[in-house]
Design a protein that fits this description.
This protein is mainly α. It contains 5 helices and 2 strands; from the N terminus they run αααββαα. Strands 1-2 form a two-stranded antiparallel sheet. Helix 2 runs parallel beside helix 3 and helix 2 runs antiparallel to helix 4. 29% of the residues are buried.
Length: 175
Amino acid sequence: MFVQDFIDEYERYRIGAEKALDQVSDDALNRILAPNGNSVAMIVRHVAGNLASRFTDFTRSDGEKPWRDRDSEFDEGPFTRTEIMQRWNSAWEVCESEVGKLTDADLTTMVQIRGQNLTVHEALCRSVTHVAAHTGQIILLARILASGEWKWISIPKGQSRQYNQNPTLEKRPAR
């Protein structure tokens, strides 16, 4: 029951990010809007690197893998949509597979991230929060960079009353 909540939240953020990514042109994926800022491509690469590292052998090895090159996740590129989406999809497959194997009884099992002991529950809370923060960045950048009319990812402005009569985004995400 509790593990399913994490699975659902990961899916909600994945869907939100992907709906935003769909609205950004290939050229805009690598655009950096501020000094020392990140492009959408950088953030996608970073989230993918983090998920792949954290969830590969999740309960059996440290979540910060020696093969991860975090700094390169922020290289300016340019990167193609195909390149970043391959990383993104591969990382999500690892996350979904490993979290999908967990049971509620596993939530008190200890794991390590950068040599620090955490319960699985703590590690999942940190991870889903990390994904949420970066999903917000992806959505904001996508909104700024989008060409054409923006397709709302959550409740459109001025439509809260209508949404509240049929709140479809409150539990399991719909693709």
